Every structure is written in C-alpha cells, then in structure tokens.
Amino acid sequence: WLKKVGDEVEPGDVLAEVETDKATMELESYQEGVLLYIGIEEGSVPVNGILAVIGEAGEDYKPILEAAQAQDSSSQNGLAQTDTAPAQDHTAVAEVVTPVTATPVASDQRVKASPLAKSIARDAGVNLAEITGTGDNGRVIKRDVENHIKAAPAPRIATPQVATTSEDAYEDLPVSQMRKTIARRLGESKFSAPHFYLTIEMDMVAAIEARKRINEMAEVKISFNDIIVKAVAAALQQHPTINSSWLGDRIRVNKNINIGVAVAVEDGLLVPVIRNANHKTLSQINTEVKTLAGKAKEKKLQPNEMQGNTFTISNLGMFGIEEFTAIINPPDACILAVGGIIEKAVVKDGELAVGKRMKVTLSCDHRVVDGASGARFLNTLKAIIEDPIRMLV
Questions:
Q1: SS3 category, 392
Q2: d(CA 189, CA 146)
Q3: Predicted pLDDT at 222
Q4: Which letter, b or e, does each residue of 104-118 get, where b requires 16 or more Cβ atoms within 10 Å of its Cβ?
Q5: Cβ neighbours of residue 322 closer than 8 Å, sequence gap 6 or more
C-alpha cells in the first residue's frame, strides 16, 4: 500500500502495488475522497474481494462491508487468510574451541646439564628446570631427560575444530506468485507433453561478419539474439507445423508468427512476445526486445505483452552455456534453446581450421511435431544463419 487510512486521494493516485503471477501492477484510484478502509494489508485477495473503501471523511462504511459479507457467506468471508507468523530463526550456535597453548620452555642457561642432555631436552621441547638431576652436584644428564620424557604424559596437540551445531542450518524462502506459476505451468508442460530434442551445430562466421557490417551502418546496434529471432521467424514461414499449438482435440496452425523471448528476472523468467516477427526488421526487433526486456526486469510488463506466443526462444549463450535443453512454453509446440558461440577446431575443405560454431536444440511436442518435421526446420534455420542474406527473401 502506498496510501494509508485517512489519506486523501484523487483520481489517478496510485493506492497500492498488486503482484500477479507475472508482473507487479499499480492500483489506481478512480474516485476522489478519503481512504476509509483497507481490506488486507498484504497477501492474497480472491476475485471480487474488497481491497479498499473510499468515501467522504467520517462516512460510515460498515454497511458496505456487511453487505459484501452477506453476499459471501462462505468460510472465506470475502478475504483470503494469510500466514503472518514470523519465520523461525535458525541461526546456529557453534561451540568455540580454544586451542591449548604449550607452555614456553624456560631458558636452561642457569640449569646444570650436560650438553647432550640439553640437546635432547631442546629437541623434545622439555623444560630442564622441571627435571631433577642425578649427576654430580645435581647435574642433569642424558638418563634424567630420557626418564622425564618417558614419565611425562603425551602432550596434547591442538587440533583445529570445525564449528558444529545440533540443528540443521537452513533458510526457508517464501515462494512468489511468479515462481508458483512457473512451477505449475512448466510442470504441466514437462509431464503432459511428450518432449523430444533435436540438436544441430551452425557455422557462425557469416553471421558474425554480417552483424559487424550492419552495425557499422545502422544507428541501432543489433545483437546475435536479434539475428536468431529474425532467422527463426523466416524459417517458421517455411515450416508452419513448427508454429503450431496442441489444443487437446485439435492442432492449431498459427498464421501469425509471434516469438516469445525468455528473459531472466529476479524471481524466475518472463516471456515477452515479439508479434509478427517475420514482418519486422532487425532494428525493430532489437528495439522491441530491449523495451520489453527492460519492462520485464522491472515487473512492468502488461498481460497483453506476454500473450499470444506461437514459438519461444531461450538464449543462454551470454552466460557461457554451450548447449542445453528447454521445457516447452505452452501453448507452443516447440522451443529453441540457443547456446553460445564457441571457437573450436573444425575440418574445412579437408583441412583443420579454427571455426566459430553455435549449437541450438529444438524441444518438440511429439503430439504435434514429428522428428522429420523438426529436422527440416533446423536445417532451414541453419541455412539462413549460415547465409544471412536469406532472411531478406
């Protein structure tokens, strides 16, 4: 809540921030008056639950609440119950073990002892002053030192101790609405859609050179991800089966090519959608991806900016990942996992050379896409990436 009870509000004032499963949205006031009542300070509110009451100062709002409660006589009472108990403190209390310090050996300069006895005592760390000599005039001799060493208890050696605790040390973190949705949706996707995976390696030399030349002339500096989005859109035009969705009793072949681009955020990931990507230039794709990714990280994406995807791309190449598989993002039939560009030894024209390669893996829903269809799509995508001029055809 950004306002408190008793505050005056005007139309357009932001009352609170509401977290959905994918974004944080601002709750604006459409009325002028005083905030008289807040339904729940923090937590979940059911559909049609009362968030707040705005009216004139001193106005009796209780009849409104009573009327709402009368309409909802269920146990929920119009409000969701939240667990507000403070988290337990599991700070571990460790026992501190202090090592025993050996008593320093006193100087034996004034103790009468034979040179051999002094040497043995020095090597054994024995204080000659503690030994009673049996030699002439109480002189400490070899036998006295050896007998003292045999009679003395074994010295205690200070062993470094590892701090221990009687309890397991851990921290329980609350699950955000976004993480709950990710768990539910991807769990349903993974265990309901029969996934299979196809991986192909691409020569990126031509794409690297094309990007370099484009960025020398264009005001908007494009990225490799922009090239991949554009190339995927061009390949999907030739393979509409890959741009399809499973709807239970039918398969929908989508005419529009709307590509979701997975963006990592603090609580998980969001997938803003680039609509009609096949009709947009590289510069337009770059600008749109940057704008939507920025809004995703600030949790300002609107629902319509995350809906309507027909294909999804997940790129972890910038994190140094060479190859991975991704879980299909419903309702899509496929998702493309993009690895990084790796410099490696390759055989070219029968000779060993340094190449720059990138691996991509296509995750397919076998209810919609067969292996041959996925393979043909990947080969088309490979041909476009390795000869970027094809994106213009």
A1: helix
A2: 79
A3: 93
A4: eeeebeebebbeebb
A5: 339, 340, 342, 359
Task: Please tell me which residue in 90, 148, 195, 366 is annotated as part of the active site.
Answer: 366
Beta bridge partners of 201: 359
Mean pLDDT of 98-108: 40
Angle between helices 205-217 and 371-386 in degrees, nearest 10: 50
Burial of 30 (0-12, 13-18, 19+ CB in 10 A): exposed
pLDDT digits (tens, 9 = 90+) for 186-230: 888 988 899 999 999 999 999 999 999 999 988 889 999 999 999
Range of 124-138, 173-187, 226-240 with top mean pLDDT: 226-240
pLDDT at 162 (0 to 100): 61
Residues 6+ apart with CB under 8 A from 128: 106, 108, 111, 113, 117, 118, 121, 140, 145
The upper half-sphere exposure of residue 258, i.e. CA atoms within 13 Å in the direction of its Cβ, equals 20
Instruction: Give just the sign of the alpha carbon dihedral 380, 385, 391, 393.
Output: negative
User: What are the beta bridge partners of residue 362?
Assistant: 198, 336
**Sheet strands (E) in 1-122:** 8-9, 14-19, 24-28, 33-38, 52-55
The answer to whether 366 is a known catalytic residue is yes
Count of CA atoms in the C-beta half-sphere (13 A) of 132: 1
Cα 70 to Cα 60, 74, 76, distances in angstroms: 17, 9, 12
CA-to-CA dists, residue 179 to 81, 183, 187, 270, angstroms: 20, 6, 12, 10
Ramachandran category for residue 125: left, alpha or beta (phi over 0 → left; psi -120 to 50 → alpha): left
If you average pLDDT over every residue of the chain, what do you get? Answer: 83
**What is the mean pLDDT of the segment spanning 231-253?**
95
* 281: CB partners within 8 A, 6+ apart: none
Q: Is the pLDDT of residue 139 over 60?
A: yes
Residue 13's identity, in one-letter code, is D
Position with higher pLDDT, 74 vs 347:
347
Residue 104: pLDDT band with limits 50, 70, 90: very low
User: Contact 114/140 with Cβ under 8 angstroms?
Assistant: yes
Kind and range of the H or E element at 360? Answer: strand 351-365
